[in-house]
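Troubleshooting: if your tokenizer reports a length mismatch, compare against these two reference records.
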Amino acid sequence: MVNIFNLSIDHPRFAKKFTNTESHDHEHVLAYNQVEFRESSKSPGVFTALTKKASNIAFGKLKFTPKSVKKRTKTGNYVSHFNVVYGTLLLKLENEKVGSIIKTGFYFHVGEQTNYTLTNLRNDEAMIDFTIIKEN
């Protein structure tokens, strides 16, 4: 059986298709090591990187150090969509006493004008991709 989760491109059949697998100079490609993360002043250990922004949409990443907490944040006039790339976090919306555990591969969204918190539950980093969509 073929392992569909093996995403390696080191197999000889790919060598003919690519000249340099380490280069990401294409204007439409942004490699992880090219992303500039900035630590939140309100939530130490939580870093944000904006990868693309337009008038009504933004794409980015959130990186959490072990056990870090993204303190209560209120969305604006937009919906935020999240995909957990790696990790296990606790999501609390508004004033929930009990939140939801979200893990690698999970999707969730936070509606307009909604307070939420995110807590990294593990002793390693967590990574989330986000998309913010502002309706016209």
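Reference record two:
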Amino acid sequence: MIKIAQVGLGTLYLTKDKNWYLKFSEKEYQVHDKEHIIALLPLFENDYEEFKQALEANNISSEVLARLPLQSAMKYPFNHQRTTWMDNALDWIEKSGMAGEMRDWALTIKRDTMPQAVMHRFRRVFDLSKGWDIPENP
């Protein structure tokens, strides 16, 4: 079992069989589907660079990392209007370099679902035009 990061009051770790788990007290949850996405949000309180260093220090391959639903967790605050987590998710999107591959998804998000400061940053991170969700022919 390899500890990767603190996630709020829990711990994110990888097992020998390359499965991702969150452990809270005595309970463990395998992280592989939408059921546990919300539990990953506190991961974004950590600095992305520290997370990346932990992956590199433990020789975690991109294939194994792909089993962790990071993009789904990064999208969650915007898809469910969780404003508390939006800035943190944007930090990770920006620092991880995933903005390009997530841009099509970003185009589907409505501007009025986020605070103005977050909306401006969202637009910058995803390189969106000023009126990305305004209909051309109202």
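Descriptive notes for reference record two:
- The chain has a mean pLDDT of 90.
- Residues 71 and 126 are 14 Å apart (CA to CA).
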